[in-house]
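Sample intake sheet
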Amino acid sequence: MKRFSRLLAVALLALGLVGVAQAHKDDIDINRLNNSLNQLSSDPTLGMYAQADQALARNAIAELANASSHDRPHALYMAERRVDQAKAAAQLEDARTHLAQLSREHDQLLLQRSQIDANAAQKELEFQRMQYQMAQEETVRLQQQGLEAANQADQARAEAEHARKLAAAQSRVARAARREAALAAEAARAMRSQMQQDSGSAAPEPAKKKAHHAADSGH
C-alpha cells in the first residue's frame, strides 16, 4: 500500500511538472507575440498604421491564450501570421505615405525647375526619380508580403476546417466499428446459446435408447 502511494505521488508530481512546463511555454509564446506587437504599436513611425490589422493580431493572441491544448498549435500559427500581417501592413502604409510625399516633392521640383539652375535641377530631379523608383519597388515588395501573409492565413483556416471534417469522419467510422463489434458479439452469444440448447436437448436420447433395450432384454 505504501509503495502504491509513493508511485501515485511520483506520477502526480510528474504530471504537475509537465503541466507547468507546458504553461511556461505557452507564456513564452504569448509574451513573445505581445512584445512584438507592442513594439509595432509603439513605433513612432509605424505605430499609427494598420490599426485594424493590429486589432486582429491582438484578438488572435487572446484566442491563443484561451485555446485548449488540442487547438493551441493552430491558434499559435494564426497569432503569428496575424502579427506578421500587421507588421507588413504598417510598413506598406508607411511606404505609400512616403511615396506620396516623394511624388509631391517631385511635382514641386518640376514647378521650381524654371526658377533654378537647369543643371542642378536636373540632378536633383534624377535623384528624386531614383528615390521614387526605389519607393515604388519597396511598395510592390510590401504588397507582395501582405498578400502572402493573407494567403497563409486563408490556407491555415482551410487546413483547420479540413482537420475538423476529417476528425468528424473518423469519429463516425469509429462509432460504426463499435456498433459492428457489438452486433458481432451479440451474434456470437446467440450462437453459443443456441449450441448449448441443442446439446442439452440431444443428451437424453442415448439414455432413452438404453432403457428401451433393457426392457426388451427382460422380455
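Comment: DSSP finds five helices and no strands in the chain. The chain has one domain: 27-185.
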